[in-house]
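[agent] plan:
  1. take the single chain provided in the ticket
  2. run structure prediction with default settings
  3. attach structure tokens to the ticket
  4. add a short note for the reviewer (M.T.)
[agent] executing step 1
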Amino acid sequence: MTEALVKRCCTEAEVLVQVLEACRMYGIDVDRQNTGAGVNPSGQKVRFGQPGNSDVSGMLPDGRKLDIEVKREDFDPSRLRGKKLEHFKRQLARLRRTNEQGGVGFWTDNVDLVFKVLPIVLAGGRVEETELGELHVVPRSQM
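[agent] step 2 finished; step 3 output follows
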């Protein structure tokens, strides 16, 4: 499959499918992580995942952790307020922590960014996620 065959879309669920497929195209073993809560058959509330966990998690071939937070195509963090803003800040903090510990963590609202970032990190580059959610991709030659 090539980049050209990946369908363009806009919902978070559709972007997520594309991100998972793009990672697998590069030979990266990734999983979808769910976070939330439900009720078991006994009526007890059961939480799963941790608030702030990324939607996609995996391991790069060189052993570094990969975390990708997926958003709908028109996502604009500057529009967030209140609890939604706090939640996004927690997600960014987790992505920054992944990067600080030598892994690769970033958020995306489209698969094009994944196709831009993955070749660079697979060649030994890294990413930096600012507190405002701006991504900086650093090729190995600039490290």
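[agent] step 4 note for reviewer: The longest strand covers residues 65-70.
[agent] ticket updated
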